[in-house]
Amino acid sequence: MTEYNAHFRTEGDYGLYHFEADSPEQALQLARELYERNPFAIEFDPYDGPLPLDEIEISGDEGDQLAVWQSDDLRLRLAAPELLKALEYCERVLRDHEQYDDGEGSAESEAAVMARAAIAKAKPPAEETTL
Question: How do strand 55-59 and strand 44-46 relate by DSSP bridges?
């Protein structure tokens, strides 16, 4: 067995845990299982220095939100599930359209290729499961 280091990273802190495993893939699976089962087993430390600011919320005495600012990155992360769903729908429409294409190539074909690449980048590989 080989010893592997699993680096856990969140937006606010990071942790390190050592695993003995037969392969990097097995170590990754063990790390995912540990985090699901007992995330407190990982000693997380805060990053040194400030992190990029994601949100500022102004609220009143009753806790009601009066004003909010969000970074472009946060807005994109919050919109990501809907964007992925829309992109998957567009890819299906373009794929169906390609069945009737004359074979000379088109903007639709290029859009389908771009949609497929973005979808592949946004989704985990088929063998992975999300936490």
Answer: unpaired
Residue listed under structure tokens 């919320």: 57
Give the pLDDT confidence of 16-60 residue by residue, as tens digits: 999 999 999 999 999 999 999 999 999 999 988 888 889 899 888
Rounded (5°) CA angle 124-118-116: 95
What is the rounded CA–CA span in Å between residue 24 and residue 119? 25
Question: Domain segments of the chain: what residues?
Answer: 2-46, 71-122
Phi/psi-derived region of residue 52, left when phi > 0, alpha when psi is between -120 and 50, beta in every other case:
beta
Tokens read off for 37: 């089962």
User: Among 31, 36, 29, 37, which Cα is nearest to 18's?
Assistant: 31
> Residue 1: helix, strand or coil by DSSP?
coil
Q: What is the pTM of this model?
A: 0.61
Distance separating alpha carbons of residues 15 and 34, to the nearest angstrom = 12
